[in-house]
Amino acid sequence: MSACAAGPDAVRMRSISKYFGGITALDGVDLVVRPGSVHALLGGNGAGKSTILKILSGVQPPSAGSVEIFGVTVKEFSPEAARRAGVAMIYQEMSLVPTLTVAENIFLTREPKTGGIFLDDRTTVGRARELLAKLGATIDPRAPVERLSAGQKQMTEIAKAISQQARILILDEPTSALSSAEISHLFGFLRGLRQLGVAVIYVSHKMDEIQQIADTVTILRNGRHVVTKALPELTLDAIIEYIVGRRVHAFERRPRAVDRNRRPLLELRHVHGPRWPIDASLVLYPGEVLGIAGLLGSGRSELARVLAGIDPVTQGEVVVRDKVLRNPSARRMIAAGIAMIPEDRRTEGLILEHSIFSNICLPTIDRLSPGGFVDDRKARSVAAELMDRLHVKSGSIRAPARTLSGGNQQKIVLAKWLAAEPDILVLDEPTAGVDIGSKAEIVALIRALADAGRGIIMISSELAELLATSDRILIMRAGRLVREIAREEIDGWAGAGAIGGEQISDLEKGLELAIQEAGPGA
Amino acid sequence: MPEGATGKTSGGAAEAGGLAAAIGDWRQYVVYGGFVVIFVIFALTLRDRGFLTPFNLLNIVRQTAIIAIMATAMTFVLCAGEIDLSVGALAGFVSVTTAMSIDAFGTAAGIVAGLATGLVVGAANAVLTTVVGIPSFLVTLAMMGIATGTAMWVSGSAAIPIVDPSYTTPFGSGNLGAVPSLLLWMAAVAVIGQGGLRKTSFGRKVLATGGSVLSARYSGVDTRAIKRYVLIASALSAALAGMLYAGRLHTGRYQLGQGDELSVIAAAVLGGTSLFGGKGTVAGSIVGALMIGLINNGLILMNLEYSQQLIARGVIIILAVALGSTR
User: How close A79 gets to chain B, by Cα (Å)?
Assistant: First the structure.
């Protein structure tokens, strides 16, 4: 860690307060970031993360307090002034034009020219190549941005900021669209930037990423500064406690008994999909949570798509309560009591422009419409009850779904399928991009559903939540289910007498190892 | 962590990207290939009907030049993610104002009046689109009617003759040596357009605006100003087109240019310009315009009936665009 470079702090925000009308968004918050470090900024929804970052990037002025960037006091709060001072906010692909090439994007509005008029494409490409090489990114500067992977776009975006002399980079959930290979690539890249003395402010809900990349952690809650510490001084439990404001036991292992003598809810017998899965067999009992682990691109989502009837079963049998389903389609799967909650809630799970209410009622609209007319009162009461049960925070059920935070959107997707009262629930990455408080609630909900006798198949990259909920875990690799791990074996991973956070991290290490042993994807 | 796998994956992705890029580039050149193929077919089948004579070939250029000039500016408009449906009607309107001014005050006044008409209409299109915020499709659709209506009103729906050769010679009727002045106008506009879009930062900003308005704005491009400029440029190109119509036909008349907007847009799209913005070349649009002229000429020489010409032209255009589209 090269965090001890001499010289002024990259960012020095002191006693920052921000009021919107009568509401206090920030109340005397301090944020100090050293050059050449990765500083994680954590907090639940409404903690004030985005407000303080907006102040730093010049989008809003603070109501009180002072901001220094590399020892210079900021007097003018505008995006241009912040950019000139070297602050760059990396938006999700927002500042890249898909139809232009990487080099054209990096130098957009600052193109090298010959004779002051004509664009000098060769110099543009050469300088872009040089810059990307310096940053350790293997991207062809002549490739159009629309053909890049999500990770390459992210790196192009960062390269563009660096070419504008950025010394402070703000990354907000940068990995939400990246595969695990791309994430490790991005992290290598960020470590390189750290060597160059760039200060990185990193916002994420993913604790495993924070533990990999951050040097220092600052946690905000309800607009107040809670703690700033070096990462090694914080345990995962402590971080979660600081963020949520109370002790959370959601991720603790809790013993449950599953009666495997009962008739299984769901059986897959040697099921093949269009490409993946290959020869997948599994049995799901009532009241059981079956975890599916594996690296990204190992075929987990393809398995979910087959279970949802979106992809066809090309070979093998799907058996629901001893009945073989012929040519399962999405409609038949729903009729058989299987609900799938897809990974990308914004495109597959929700109609963002429609109201919360109509989103929730969509899968059950026929049942709510006797004689073809929607029974509005009944539909509304069903929706309101579910929102209440899932603690969705929203002003009105008529508000468009896009107005909700990520965590609340995910709860709406859950609500939508709970309204259909499925016996079997397939969840694909149910907590992706959700803040830690909502995560805990979703984990508790999954347990409650299993306790009520439903069968749940849970696909997740977050080991902590897989371990917290699963009664068995199947490991997937290259489209095949390669290993089954029983609960007893999982419990054996924990060291004798390990409790709480220690136990969780022992179990995580065990599962990580099991996934790595299974080998990489394709 | 599987570091080896990481390197391999990203390398593979880069290769695949390069290959896809090559295919994408190849598709951009379909219009040139199509042009050559159609030219060769006509040259072989219509040899004895005078297709290859210099007179006929120059005739094709003469009939195409005005469309090509408007297609050049239309390329900028489409690349910026907008559209201009008013060009044909505006050309007719300008032919009227130019002819009336020449009649009353002489050649210079005619040129000024023509350009001023274009500037006013273009500014109106630009302001309504970028300041008021009406989609350019609707603004220019409405402007089409307004331009034609005004032209009919001021001219009493009559043709206004232009007799002064100091106007008609440079504007479409005369030759410079063996070269028709129309061809020179087209060449000048094409060279400025091609260079402006490919080689200047203005052109880059136009492509960025149409590629993604939001990204362009975040990168510091004044996307509204860009849209204003391209709409005004399009109107000025239509004004030039109207003045050339007037010069070539020695007349100002509101019907001149009627329906040209569709030929102009078809030329640009044939040439690989995207209707969704962000992609396109002026050279492609010029070749697209020449291709349409070529097809019209060939079909006439084949002695097809007008109804058959319409069908054949439609089929050829669909084939060409289908070959060039990515999906």
Answer: 10
- Tell me how far apart the 2 most distant CA atoms of chain A are, in Å: 82
Packing angle, helices B107-127 and B223-249, rounded to 10: 150
ipTM of the complex: 0.73
Determine the distance in angstroms separating the CA of A14 from the nearest CA of chain B, rounded to an integer.
Answer: 28
User: Closest Cα to residue B151, out of B85, B241, B90, B87?
Assistant: B90
CA distance A309 to chain B (A): 27
pLDDT above 80: residue A91: no
CA of B326 vs chain A CAs: smallest distance (Å): 13
Q: Of A131-145, A199-213, A367-381, B58-72, where does mean pLDDT reach its minimum?
A: A367-381
In Å, how far are A110, A114, A126, B136 from A120, measured between CA atoms? 11, 6, 10, 33
- Tell me: pLDDT of A508 over 70: yes
Which pLDDT does position A150 carry in this prediction? 77
pLDDT in tens, B223-235: 999 999 999 999 9
**How many inter-chain contacts (A to B, CB under 8 Å) are there?**
103
**What CATH number was assigned to the domain covering residues A276-518?**
3.40.50.300
Give contacts of B21 with chain A, Cβ < 8 Å. Answer: 142-144, 147
* Residues B234 and B64: beta-carbon distance below 8 Å: no
pLDDT at A380: 84
Q: What's the mean pLDDT when you consider all of chain B?
A: 87
According to the model, what pLDDT value does residue B18 have?
45
Please check whether residue B279 lies inside any domain of the structure.
yes
Same fold yes or no, A1-86+188-248 and A276-518: yes
Give the residue on B whose Cα is nearest the Cα of A164: B219
Q: How far is B221 from chain A (nearest CA, A)?
A: 7
Residue contact B204–A104, C-beta within 8 A = yes
Angle at A320 between CA A316 and CA A323, to 5 degrees: 80
B-chain residue closest to A106, CA distance = B219
Which ranges of chain B would DSSP assign to H, the alpha helix? 3-28, 30-45, 54-79, 87-105, 107-127, 136-155, 165-168, 181-199, 201-211, 213-218, 223-249, 260-270, 282-301, 306-324
**Chain B residues with beta carbon closer than 8 angstroms to that of A95:** 215, 218-219
Least confident stretch, A165-169, A397-401, B61-65, B269-273: A397-401
Q: Is residue B40 part of a domain?
A: no
Categorize the per-residue pLDDT at A285 as very low, low, confident or very high, splitting at 50, 70 and 90. Answer: very high
Tell whether B25 is within 8 A of chain A (Cβ): no
pLDDT over 50 (residue B13): no
Contacts B205 to A, Cβ<8 Å: 108-109
- Domain membership of residue B177 (yes or no) is yes
pLDDT tier, A124 (very low <50, low <70, confident <90, very high otherwise):
very high
Does residue B319 register a pLDDT over 60? yes
| Chain A interface test: which of B1, B202, B209, B281 (most A C-beta within 10 Å) | B1
Percent of chain B surpassing pLDDT 70 = 90
Q: Is there a domain that residue B215 lies in?
A: yes
Domain boundaries, chain A: 1-86+188-248, 88-166, 276-518
Q: What is the CATH number of the domain that holds B252?
A: 1.10.3470
Q: How many CB atoms within 10 Å of residue A520?
A: 21
What is d(CA B217, CA B80) in angstroms, rounded to the nearest whole number?
13
Closest CB from B9, B199, B215 relative to A97: B215
Determine, for residues B221 and A147 on separate chains, whether the beta-carbon distance falls below 8 Å.
no
Chain B residues near residue A184 by CB distance under 8 angstroms: 1, 3, 6
Q: How many domains does chain B have?
A: 1
B139 touches chain A (CB under 8 A): no
Q: Select A1-86+188-248's CATH number: 3.40.50.11420, 3.20.20.370, 3.40.50.300, 3.40.50.1110.
A: 3.40.50.300
Q: What are the chain A neighbours of B201 within 8 Å (beta carbons)? A: 109, 111, 113, 119
Q: Is the pTM of this model over 0.80?
A: no
